[in-house]
Design a protein that fits this description.
The chain is of the alpha/beta class. It has one domain. The protein contains 7 helices and 12 strands. It has an 8-stranded mixed beta sheet. Strands 3-4 form a two-stranded antiparallel sheet. Strands 11-12 form a two-stranded antiparallel ribbon. Helix 4 runs parallel beside helix 5.
């Protein structure tokens, strides 16, 4: 079911899928895997099978039952575009998001080409509904091709999570992207983020008119080193892409 969350850039999480498979260096210290594996073998617990992939069709009805508009991070404990998830089930997730259209859904993936292909097929006659935001995770310069895939989607609500930021992104064109979130890794074995990597992204966002949100420096705990960058907290949010019908109820 949907749950309240401490993630600063959303209101709640909704996990119609749980469990995942690692795909790159950004996954090495996965917080979701770490949490799920704590409960492996505990009978009756939602994660009694640890981080093994599991579909939760009974959770598909949750957005419809949640009457107050929320920003909802979809699959904080998985990736909707895993190859092992059947296309028909992804359809059901999108059906649920379209039906409960008084929420804003934030769908984030590392499997950017699969998301692009799915979305192009589903919305071949027009843009993605404005209340469904589509994003990619990019941890370093080696994975910036995901940004290109994202920009090939017909949507006003594209966003990028540069978290955990593990290296410099370098020269990149973010025009057409509405929002960027930047953060360092946290938890056991957290890899450090250099100041210039984050600052360079801030300058790129300013140049390309992208709302910029600096989440954290990271460390053993998420806020171990605070969240001030270049002397400021950066809380940029793309209010201009929130549907007018629910804008006033979501503004915080």
């Amino acid at each position: 079911m949907a749950q309240k969350t401490e993630i600063e850039w959303t209101d709640a999480t909704w996990n119609p899928v749980a469990g995942c498979v690692k795909i790159g260096p950004g996954c090495d210290n996965c917080y979701a895997e770490r949490f799920a594996e704590r409960w492996r073998g505990v009978p009756g617990h939602p994660y009694e099978n640890g981080f093994d992939l599991r579909l939760w069709p009974e959770r598909l009805k949750q957005p419809m039952l949640w009457k107050k508009p929320r920003m909802i991070f979809v699959n904080s404990m998985s990736d909707l575009f895993l190859k092992d998830i059947d296309r028909g089930y992804i359809d059901r997730v999108f059906d649920a998001m379209e039906a409960a259209d008084w929420h804003v859904y934030q769908v984030l993936t590392k499997r950017s080409s699969l998301m692009r292909n799915y979305v192009r097929s589903r919305y071949d006659s027009g843009p993605v509904p404005r209340h469904i935001w589509l994003g990619v995770s990019v941890e370093d310069a080696a994975h910036t091709s995901r940004i290109g895939h994202l920009k090939e989607i017909n949507s006003e609500a594209r966003f990028i999570s540069f978290e955990p930021l593990l290296g410099p992104i370098g020269t990149v064109d973010l025009t057409g992207v509405a929002w960027a979130i930047v953060g360092g890794e946290s938890g056991p074995g957290a890899r450090p983020m250099e100041h210039e990597w984050a600052s360079e992204l801030r300058r790129t966002c300013e140049r390309d008119k992208v709302a910029f949100f600096f989440k954290q420096w990271g460390g053993p705990r998420p806020k171990s080193k605070g969240r001030t960058l270049d002397g400021h907290e950066w809380n940029g949010f793309p209010w201009q892409i929130v549907p007018e019908s629910i804008l006033h109820q979501l503004q915080r």
